[in-house]
Amino acid sequence: QVQLVESGGGLVQPGGSLRLSCAASGSIFRFFAMGWYRQAPGKQRELVAAITSGGSTNYVDSVKGRFTISRDNAKNTVYLQMNSLKPEDTAAYYCNKDQSRSSSLLGWGQGTQVTVSS
Questions:
Q1: Which of 20, 25, 34, 53 is the most exposed place for a label (fewest CB within 10 A)?
Q2: Looking at 1-118, which runs of residues are DSSP E strands?
Q3: How far is it, in rounded angstroms, from Cα 62 to Cα 90?
Q4: How much is the mean pLDDT over the chain?
């Protein structure tokens, strides 16, 4: 089974930046369309950024222009560069397969907490 481990979260001030990483086991990672999801307290988990196996990307409107998803298939890793962070970005962030391009997701990792506060 593919295992997912997220890292890179933390506490930042509004306008700051963070880079999240998602490390996946197994060489078949390169075939998966991947995404970053976030879940804030009391809210549903939502897909905010996605990237295909070939590197094509898509974003939810609320993060477009501020977040950049990328991947390094040789390292079995997907990244989320987050700039111009806002308090409303505060959430637990998770990676997984892109739900719009896959019939089933992988098991969820522990996630990494992002808190944007002054």
A1: 25
A2: 4-7, 10-12, 18-24, 34-39, 46-51, 57-59, 67-72, 77-82, 91-97, 112-116
A3: 13
A4: 95
CA dihedral 26, 102, 10, 73 (to 10 degrees): 40
pLDDT 10s digits, 52-94: 999 999 999 999 999 999 999 999 999 999 999 999 999 999 9
Residue 71 near residue 77, CB atoms below 8 Å: yes
The pLDDT of residue 4 is above 80: yes
CB 116 within 8 A of CB 86: yes
The β-bridge partners of 114 are 10, 91
Contacts of 78 by beta carbon, 8 Å cutoff, 6+ apart? 21, 22, 24, 34, 36, 51, 69, 70, 71, 72, 95
The answer to whether the beta carbons of residues 77 and 22 sit under 8 Å apart is: yes
pLDDT at res. 30: 87
How much is the pLDDT for 65?
98
